[in-house]
């Protein structure tokens, strides 16, 4: 606390990011990065962009990148908003679209940044419990059961559970709330979820947020985007242009465009993660874990008789890091990123050893 702080600063509960360890040679399964590097074409494009143009500011409207995203998503460039990672996109979304007279609604177990943004921007919110098997119940998001929400946001697949709704279920939420913005955070959708981007042309209250950090292996480059009706995008642009920030730098833009264009590499690596997830899930189940069905590049698992914090600590002693949340209902779970096949084997062997001890 300092008497020089603005009053709001003392009230904030900032997000605690997943650890980015300084040690080398750790099996890092804690922050859901892609285990395979980006397409070689991304590296070529970034090298080619390292030219004299770096002395110039980037394109403030990111035309080339928005065009590439629009082509991938099957929408118009005017329906695309870009930012430095989807976290920055979400920061603008909360301010531009989610602050209303009625509370914003989201699940009680979800991406822990949402309440942080609410605190920062003074947005009132209400949380709805997930079902006993950690699913989102669509009816909880319809005015009939819980009244009219000011706006709605949830990830699909949800994080950290990995459980997904299908597009028809999400459409019920969007269609059932014509007077409220519904934001679907699809950070992990390419690993088995069903994107609702095709619905944005039919519903002007739907905004879909995606990232190149996960399925495109570019967490270090910081590129995310939102797709929605031109009116929603214009609201986001107004907020973004009220900061003097350039959304995407020249190198990130070149790399992101190349990643979006290399569909073959994208397919190959995303399918590799899905395959490893199946084997890893079976391996964890064989060790006695209960594993929630995952549509993401991580699994959420608990052991009936072993303490999760203790398991995470024992794995760490063996140079493997996974994520453990000290939150009610989920403090006996571990969230484990799907790594390479070799990393997954190391994880399963280490767990077998720990469980026997
Ligand atoms: N949404 C969800 C649900 C996430 O888990 C993450 C990653 N922590 C993000 C958004 C943000 O990812 P990025 O800023 O790297 O795009």
Automatic annotation (TrEMBL):
It comes from the Bacteria. GO terms for molecular function: histidinol-phosphate transaminase activity; pyridoxal phosphate binding. It is an enzyme of class 2 (transferase). The keyword Iron does not apply. The keyword Amino-acid biosynthesis applies. The modification N6-(pyridoxal phosphate)lysine is found at residue 214. Residues 25-351 form the Aminotransferase class I/classII large domain. Its EC number is 2.6.1.9. It holds the Pfam family Aminotran_1_2. InterPro entries: Aminotrans_II_pyridoxalP_BS (IPR001917), Aminotransferase_I/II_large (IPR004839), HisP_aminotrans (IPR005861), HistidinolP_aminotransfase (IPR050106), PyrdxlP-dep_Trfase (IPR015424), PyrdxlP-dep_Trfase_major (IPR015421), PyrdxlP-dep_Trfase_small (IPR015422). Keywords: Amino-acid biosynthesis, Aminotransferase, Histidine biosynthesis, Pyridoxal phosphate, Transferase. It catalyses: L-histidinol phosphate + 2-oxoglutarate = 3-(imidazol-4-yl)-2-oxopropyl phosphate + L-glutamate. Pathway: Amino-acid biosynthesis; L-histidine biosynthesis; L-histidine from 5-phospho-alpha-D-ribose 1-diphosphate: step 7/9. Its cofactor is pyridoxal 5'-phosphate. GO terms for biological process: L-histidine biosynthetic process. Belongs to the class-II pyridoxal-phosphate-dependent aminotransferase family. Histidinol-phosphate aminotransferase subfamily. Homodimer. This is Histidinol-phosphate aminotransferase. The gene is hisC_1.
